[in-house]
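1st attempt posting a full record on here, be nice pls
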Amino acid sequence: MVEAWYMDESQEDQRAPHRLQPNRAVSLEQLRRLGVTYRRLDADNYETDPCLKEIRKAENYSWMDIITIHRDKLPSYEEKIKTFYEEHLHLDDEIRYILDGSGYFDVRDKDDKWIRISMEKGDMITLPAGIYHRFTLDENNYVKAMRLFVGEPVWTPYNRPADDLPARKQYMKFLAEEAQ
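the predicted structure (as tokens):
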């Protein structure tokens, strides 16, 4: 089961958990109010999983690939790790399904505080278009993830600040409506 918490302000190793002391856990409901959705799937059988097939059909996820993030598997590893950890947003939802290994997605809450979401094998997350976020490996230094898209993939990250983009404005409107 996914676990999430508010992060401390430490600039030390990004792969460390960075929990506040005392820990401030974040529930799935709190994530949902930020537009973040979570599912638990059978990663051992992702190639034939009827649940994944149904999700792809229902959500129109017509394109997918698999990325392995590890020093020995990813070209330009150091550069990619830095890019993934820069705070950014996308114009489309970001859908990731962890097939093996583990890592962290960090998202901003409505008060601009960081929430760290620990992801491991079997976890699927959808980050809404317009949410500021970043990704890092954890201390295991390995993750294999399926990336899903509606239509052709668009890899463009818009580094913060990107508040003038329509996706960000729409996301902020969503947050305001959730707060009511």
